[in-house]
Amino acid sequence: MITNFIDDTRIDNRLPAILAMKKMSIRQLSDETGIVYTMIRDVYHGKRQSVKWETIDRICQVLGVDVGDLYVRIPEGEG
Predict the structure, then answer these.
(1) 59-70 pLDDT, tens per residue?
(2) Could you give the maximum distance between any two Cα atoms of the chain, in Å?
């Protein structure tokens, strides 16, 4: 399993994998959510320290996923 941990946490950012599975670009997600490209890019790369719940909710709505699909905590010793 490929993991995309955010900073020094055990939180795995699954947005890159979800977009790849749906064959969708960051730009397309930005256009469909109405969220500025730089915000989506930063969320994609795990560069934001904080993200509004409304932003996460809108991303989940457009992608048809739950928050738990977008971010997953990987226990120590795994990943």
Answers:
(1) 999 999 999 999
(2) 38
